[in-house]
């Protein structure tokens, strides 16, 4: 049996004799089925034509695939004396990547912001023999269940060295951001995926229910996101793609972005 991978979202599904009939993640209105219809690939096929690159991204080690696969996000490696955390995940994993991560101290755990980045999380977890932390509110979107997956509930989950998972909701009910107190040169950082979407003008962020289908969030959800991170000090935000980061003054950026967003929702032409 083969664990097929959706070519559009990059999420690996439970092993089967034939490709699944459909990808429920892509059929959801927050994602989309490709214009040529549902397509499937495998990890073996992807390894043949793609390689991972590992390099610095504003003080953190980024891991991304070239050429890009599916949504094209990169993962982040948060190094700590008490164990390294892989934040978010990518589809391609190979021996060279595993060896490189082990040279950087290996992994203690994986944490993922939301279902669009579940990718090949089980392959990563098995390669390093570590748990994957996902919020229980998004359990239904796990396409390849496994004992390595630990579903946490509530509004926060303490990790180690002060790192904290924060349920912010918004894009998905279990949408999660990670607070890293040592980030931002000690002023704190948020690893946000696209729950806080760093804008092209990187002094700003935005908030959406569906990015590809341009469905906004209501003002109440924006307020919830802002309130959920209010107790945490941070000066930097790491987004989901290479260099898509708010380098400084990130707390102020979130507040002014939320006000601009809510004002746009009520604007009349």
Write the layout of secondary structure elements.
Blueprint: E1 5-6, H1 24-27, E2 40-41, H2 43-49, E3 51-57, E4 60-66, E5 75-78, E6 85-87, H3 95-103, E7 109-111, H4 121-128, E8 132-135, E9 149-152, E10 156-158, E11 164-167, E12 176-180, E13 189-191, E14 197-198, E15 205-206, E16 208-210, E17 215-216, H5 219-229, E18 236-238, E19 245-246, H6 250-265
Parallel strand pairs: 6-7, 7-8, 8-9, 13-18
Antiparallel strand pairs: 1-2, 3-4, 4-5, 5-6, 10-11, 11-12, 12-13, 14-15, 16-17, 18-19
Helix pairs in contact: 5-6
Beta-strand percent range: 15-25%
Low-confidence stretches: none
* Mean pLDDT across all amino acids: 97
CATH architecture: 4-Layer Sandwich
Looking at CATH, which topology would you report? Answer: Metallo-beta-lactamase, Chain A
How much helicity do the residues have?
10-25%
Topology order in helix (H) and strand (E) letters: EHEHEEEEHEHEEEEEEEEEEHEEH
The outline comes out as: globular
Read across the widest sheet, the strand sequence of neighbours is 3-4-5-6-7-8-9
Total helical elements: 6
Notable characteristics:
269 residues, alpha+beta, Metallo-beta-lactamase, Chain A, 7-stranded mixed β-sheet, 6-stranded mixed β-sheet
Q: What would you say about this model in short?
A:
This protein is α+β, with helices and mostly antiparallel strands. It is 20% helix and 24% strand. Strand 11 (164-167) and strand 12 (176-180) form a beta hairpin.
């Amino acid at each position: 049996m083969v664990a097929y991978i959706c070519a559009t979202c990059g999420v690996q599904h439970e092993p089967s004799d034939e490709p699944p009939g459909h990808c429920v993640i892509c059929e959801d209105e927050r994602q989309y089925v490709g214009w040529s219809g549902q397509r499937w690939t495998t990890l073996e096929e992807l390894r043949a034509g793609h390689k991972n690159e590992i390099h610095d991204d504003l003080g953190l080690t980024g891991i991304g695939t070239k050429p890009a696969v599916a949504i094209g996000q990169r993962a982040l490696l948060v190094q700590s004396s008490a164990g390294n955390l892989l934040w978010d995940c990518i589809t391609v994993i190979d021996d060279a990547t595993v060896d490189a991560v082990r040279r950087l101290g290996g992994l203690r755990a994986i944490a993922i912001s939301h279902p669009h980045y579940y990718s090949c999380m089980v392959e990563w977890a098995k390669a390093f023999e570590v748990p994957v932390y996902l919020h229980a509110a998004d359990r239904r979107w796990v396409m390849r269940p496994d004992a390595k997956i630990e579903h946490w509930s509530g509004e926060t989950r303490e990790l180690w060295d002060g790192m904290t998972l924060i349920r912010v909701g918004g894009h998905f009910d279990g949408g999660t951001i990670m607070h890293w107190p040592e980030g931002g040169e000690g002023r704190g950082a948020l690893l946000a995926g696209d729950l806080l979407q760093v804008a092209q003008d990187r002094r700003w962020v935005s908030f959406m229910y569906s990015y590809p289908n341009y469905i906004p969030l209501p003002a109440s959800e924006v307020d919830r996101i802002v309130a959920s991170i209010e107790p945490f000090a941070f000066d930097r935000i790491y987004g989901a793609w290479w260099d898509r980061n708010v380098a400084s003054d990130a707390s102020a950026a979130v507040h002014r972005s939320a006000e601009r967003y809510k004002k746009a929702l009520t604007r009349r032409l």
